[in-house]
Hints:
By secondary structure, this protein is an alpha+beta fold. It is built from 36 helices and 16 strands. Among the domains are: 69 residues, no CATH class; 146 residues, MutS, DNA mismatch repair protein, domain I (3-Layer(aba) Sandwich); 342 residues, no CATH class. Helix content is 49%, strand content 10%. Helix 10 links the parallel strand 7 and strand 8. The chain binds a DNA duplex through helix 2, helix 6, helix 12, strand 9 and strand 11.
Amino acid sequence: MESTAANGGGFLSRMALNDNKAGMEGLDRDRINKIIMEASKGSRFYENEAKKELQVNQRIEKMMLQKAQITEQQLQKAHAQVERMVYEMDMSRDLSRLIVHVDMDAFYAAVEMRDCPELKDKPMAVGSMSMLSTSNYHARKFGVRAAMPGFIAKKLCPNLVIVPTNFDKYRAVSNEIREIFAEYDPHFQPMSLDEAYLDFTDHLEQRISWPESLRTHWRGTDTTETGSIAPNTMLAKVCSDKNKPNGQYRLPSNREAVMDFIQNLPVRKVFGIGKVSENMLGGLGITHCAHLSQQMALLSLLFSETAWHHFLRISLGLGSTHIERDGERKSMSTERTFKEMSVAEEQLSLCRELCDDLAADMKKEELRGKTVTLKLKNVKFEVKTRASTLPCAVATADEIFAVAKDLLKTEIENVSPQRLRLRLMGVRISTFVSAEDKTPQQKSIVGFLQQGSSGPSQDIAPNRGRETVSHHSMEMDPPACSHSLEQLPQEVPRLQGLPWTAGQTELQQADVAGEKQPQSFFQRAYAKKLRLQGKSLSGEDKGHGSVCSGFNQRGMDNLKSGDSKMHDSERGLLGSSRNSSVTNMANVSVAPLEARVSTSGCAAPNCETLTCPVCFGEVRTTNLNVFNRHIDQCLSGVTTKPHQTTDTDSESDGDGGLKGLTAKDEWIEEDKGWQKKSKPDEDLNDFKTCETLHRPSVTRSEDTTDGGTLERCSRDEPLLDHHSFLNVHSSQRASLSRDGNPGTLTSHLESQPSHEASTLICPVCQVPQNTDDLTVFNRHVDLCLNQEVLHKLGEHASSSSLSSASVRPPITAKKSKERDQHKARPNKGKSKRRGPPSSPPAKKVKALGSQNTIDKFLR
DNA sequence: GCGGATCAC
DNA sequence: TATGGTGATCCGC
């Protein structure tokens, strides 16, 4: 077995040529592997690979040991269980679908050859001397393939032409291709630039006459495709590999054909089985799918349930029978490889850059996440990740960096006095709370102020992170919460009286609306703003009203269960133009409008009056359209602020103002200042005013409350109404953004940090602050808010845990505008893979698919 | 929730 | 000279 040859022979199976690819059959593997090993041996990369191979071998040995201890009785029992499963799975087999997998042959290379025909007859690859993305079929004959470093490829094929990647070009071609896909299946599932699944079932009849035109299209891009037809995605994917290049393969939709096809299939060909799994299975003598079924009882005893169920499905030729668009993005990251870097200052500087980049990417999709992960790879290729989860979601470069920096500092300190010798650094953000978490944060902190409130979600969860984590929490609370304030003026008042609060306790309602008293200070601030500025009528708002009403109606009509996690306020607030767009699209042709109109189901069905968030009057209706109209009318009295721009792009450096205050320069200038714990983090200077006000315990309680509330809301299923209400937010906001006459305080706030606005206006007292210095401005707002908070707290005994973290003014407030635009097409960007074709060891498949079917129409 | 590992492209 | 970047998931703690 190759896997046992970890060291001695100087041959690493995991580094050997992977010829599991089209166009690489019948190669002189020994010769090629010899060249690969010679080129690699002695390198740090090689050493690390050797180490990893050893680990895998140990895993295999351990597994073999387990196998040896299995009794006949256990095996028989397992066998019976497997039999039952097989029966059930077989019974559920669905052969009714016709799934097509289309895969462009050597896509990048094909595009490059199209643009440079001389390359057609030469071995060529796309990539760099460090790494190749793909190679053409000429090059593959030499053993040159994707994921191989260019310099090794050159050794295999000295005449190899390496063309640098040009992703814009590939994307453009990919878009052409996807247009064609859409003709066949508007819900097709793109897996990457060059790969997609289509469901031909529904319109098969009319499509039977189409293949001719399909070919024509492909020639247009001068690339060839391989397609396959099969009853499920797993099989389709395998089939498309069968007749590469430029071929098709159709697997008949009957059980016999499927089972026949599966038997001789090498396990490695199946999506989800990589080289490690292949080796593990190989240790058991399992190389082909036929072996899988033979050894299933054993596998069920040696592998996790997830894993062996996956194996079982493969062995039966089962796979996903429906095409699903990408679900929601779960993480976003950026990482970079570089020459050895061991100077801490440089590392921190790079970390900052990565955070900048990541924040910029996040901004495009208007994401906010709670978990920041730092990834490090040292010069020995050892990878390490360090994560920290915050109580509040973060989004800006400063916020992310505040966390990543500490993680990095900790790692640096851990190896001190030696240096971290890095070759890669990355920053990732996850645990997105994009829409649903903002209100909870807000309401919970306000709720916290309501002492005695002891709703189900009021328990204070300990921050389970390491020391650094809690440290982060302290630092991060203010910025995270500042965001929430950004939401407040619109969202908190509007939340009051929301149907879904009706069934909750009074305290819980207070939680939500920040109102135990008749009005929260936010509401008072908002009302004050309205009084001050809302006296003149603005004509455009009538327009808003109709937009709202129209949308709401449609939204309501289409309400179904969607993303159950979706919470009201932010969804509405931030997703406005998205929802509007979706509505428009839905009017055209796209069916699944409901995908956008989420159902979090927090409402209580028995609310008969609704409280207007603007005039605070009771509106006796349960008809949200009526209610919406009322709100619109109220809002139409809101005046607009002059010279506000709606050009979000021009304001894109919204946190640029902050950057001037960041630590970047500080810790570079300061000799090792970053290492001294005693030195305050100047880069967080503008957060500090809040930090003094925010105790970690408060933060935790917020967090817990949020989670609890959210959970509770998600479970209560069917409440549709508040979605319509949500839509009021959306449409209203969209209109406000678009028409350039934002009349709300939020919009007003958004404009504050912009360059155009040299004067910042306090959102609480409404007094213009004659300063550009955001730190100064922050202090002022904090002061104002403190007065409000203290005032409020006068009615409550305990003030020791006072926190106004969440009310820090929105320095980077204007981001939310852009969010409106980008949220309309969530999470398409970088995601390369989603929902493996055979639904491999994936626990859940979130039913968010329809949400994304609209995406391409919005592109 | 964290961290390592695996997998796909 | 030189072995990537992004995203997802699983498993064992």
